[in-house]
Amino acid sequence: MLGVQGRVVAGLTVRATMGRKRAFLFALPALILLLVTVALKLAHPERATWPEDILGVFGFSVVLPLTALIIGTSVLGAEIDDGSIVHLLATPVRRPAVIAAKYTVAVVLTMAFVAVPELLAGIIATGGASKLAVGLFAGALAGCVMYNAVFVMISVLTTRAIAVGLLYALIWEGLLGNLVAGARLLSVGQYSLGIANSVAHDPSLNAVLTLGTSIGMGLAVTAAALIIATRRLASFSLKGEPA
Q1: Contact 155/72 with Cβ under 8 angstroms?
Q2: Which structural domain range is residue 103 located in?
Q3: Amino acid 241: pLDDT
Q4: Where are the beta strands (DSSP E) in 48-139?
């Protein structure tokens, strides 16, 4: 539970994050995914393997990390960049509560803009709430939880969160995580696919990690990222405040 202070911070974060027409930016990757799914369904009514390729590979390698990157770095990174974080830290709100509130908002928004469209696309592609559609939904939910922990941590560690996060998503998750066997054990995308495949049981998803490994490593990465983010934010010092 966030507590009263956390809920106040969360409410302010939602209003700030969803302002300035950012909702369209958040929704754009999912909109592309849905449009591509509808187009392929009309062009290829037969199942084949395109749902696994589009919803699994494209959805988990592009839509999920990209949307999580934009949202996860927006909930806190913008305040750090423009210096307004000083006003928040000057309040009596505990800094772990700040991270918890920001992270919770990022996870919920990413679920709304990624996991729900992933489920809708799965239903469209397979003609109903199939194992593949439900599995992809479960994997996307887990990915939202894990990716946002990483991106919130990055936004606290550097003022160039978007650039660093993009390099992480493209090089580590997009390239090494899919091609290098050893890197898959430290890939959030592979954890998400492993969880999705535990429900879908579809070899076309090319999931290489078991459910136990995916959940265990995912929890470890999420916890480590949030601990690092909390400690880093706690090290921020205000003028007149001891470091």
Answers
A1: yes
A2: 46-234
A3: 44
A4: none
How many other CB atoms are there within 10 angstroms of residue 195's CB atom?
A: 26
Q: Give φ, ψ of 241 to 5 degrees.
A: -110, 135
Q: How high is the pLDDT of residue 173?
A: 86
User: Mean pLDDT per 10-residue run, the chain (243 residues)?
Assistant: 67 71 83 93 80 88 93 77 57 77 93 96 92 96 97 90 91 79 85 96 90 96 95 67 42
Task: Assess if residue 12 is contained within a domain.
Answer: no
Token pair, residue 55, equals 């919803």
Angle at the Cα of 73 from the Cα atoms of 71 and 79, rounded to 5 degrees: 115
Q: What is the pLDDT of residue 84?
A: 55
Q: Considering the domain boundaries, does residue 24 fall inside one?
A: no
Which residues, 6 or more positions from 238, have their beta carbon under 8 angstroms from its beta carbon? 86, 89, 90
Look at residue 239 in the predicted model and tell me its pLDDT. Answer: 43
Query: What is the CA 201 to chain-centroid distance, rounded?
Result: 23
Q: Is 239 a domain residue? A: no
pLDDT for residue 242: 42
209 DSSP 8-state letter: S
Instruction: Mention every residue, 6+ apart, whose C-beta is less than 8 A from residue 32.
Output: 63
Return the pLDDT at 243.
Answer: 39
Q: Which residues contact 241 (CB under 8 A, 6 or more apart)?
A: none
Q: What is the identity of the amino acid at 5?
A: Q
Question: How many independent structural domains does the chain possess?
Answer: 1
Tokens of 155: 């936004």
> What is the gyration radius of the CA atoms in the chain, in angstroms?
18
DSSP state of 62: I
Tell me the pTM.
0.88
138 found inside a domain: yes
User: Using CA atoms, how far apart are residues 151 and 17, in angstroms rounded to an integer?
Assistant: 15
